[in-house]
Amino acid sequence: MIETKEQLQDLIQKLEEKISPIFLEIEKQCRKNSEKVLSAFQKHKITEAHFGSTSGYGYSDFGRDTLEKVFAEVLGAEDALVRAQMISGSHALTVTLFALLRPDDTLLSITGKPYDTLEEVIGITENKSSLRSFGVHYEQIDLVNNDFDYDKIEKVLKGKKIKVIEIQRSKGYSTRKSITINQIEKIIKFIKNIDSNVIIMVDNCYCEMVSEKEPTELGADIMVGSLIKNLGGGIAPNGAYIAGKKELIELCAERLTLPGEGREVGPTLGINKSLYQGLFFAPSVVASSLKTAVFTSALLEELGYQVEPKWNDARADVVANIVFNNAEDLIKYCQGIQIGSPIDSNAIPEPWDMPGYQDKVIMAAGAFTQGSSIELSCDGPIREPFIAYQQGGLTYEYGKLGVIKAVERLLNLK
Ligand SMILES: *Cc1c(COP(=O)(O)O)cnc(C)c1O
Fold first, then answer.
1. Residue 41 above 90 pLDDT?
2. At what angle are helices 327-339 and 396-410 packed, to 10 degrees?
């Protein structure tokens, strides 16, 4: 039993020794990703001129256009769209779905129910502007034992024409495990063997640079993520990316702006340098987040809580889950994360009705950028089994300090 802050410190010292081999692996991964990023910057001959900016229509923004080439290079994709005009990951997913699907087409999710905010986008929850309202059909196949249901997927693909398959790598607010890159590689091969024309779209939020490869390097047609998560490196002030096949990126650009202007417009209003710098920092920031997640899993498990993944499990994303089984502990833990944050540390978060979510959600994010979840943040819907979803940590030290504050509040340590 831990009853004092001193006892907690002693325990942490022991745990840090135990988890140090995992940290070495994370650092190795960070080096590989840093090499990828550095060589993409060098190949595209980035200079100060790329940090220039446009206003108004944003024609001929050479910094923006080159940044998109650098992103494509790093992600092993033909092309990419990297824009501040995409408000969030959910917006980028919405742009992609509306760009790819036409009336009477079918969207198939093979990772069960998609991320909460997509329910109204797809029309699983009624909305007058959903894909469903335009006559787009939706089907889903649930995971079985945290893996794809290969038999069902084969049956559906052989039975009817599917336009887009959505794979969500990170678990979102579900109780399943996140999908590993090996699972992604295997399912892509399987699907393309049955129907090489189906468009495989991956929701890659929270997963970039966690593994050796990205889905677009393994045959995914298109992939989406947020810049206030992994690839923004904690520096991008907002925005999202879409990467993939050239002709699909073209469709997304024309949906994001307008048919006929596509990617040619979109002012950068002074943020090009931040987006370059964010990508440059992303490998280390992802590594810090992973270390914070490993530390959290080790500590909370030691304190008797159920965690997912375990400290020594292979990770697919930067998220650490703690199952609290009651609302009070979930709320206390999230409040502790807020208290341990650099910004708004004196605010006490409470559960609220967030737009786009069906349950009340508590969100701790004492972040430099509003809602940034590559900065240490913790949130969870107020529903059974009361899971905290913690992610981020711009540096490991700050991540660890925040987690210690959260545990102190959870256990009422003096
Ligand atoms: C974060 C996230 C999104 C997008 O969230 P935004 O807050 O809109 O950027 C989508 N899918 C998953 C799995 C996520 O984790």
1. yes
2. 140
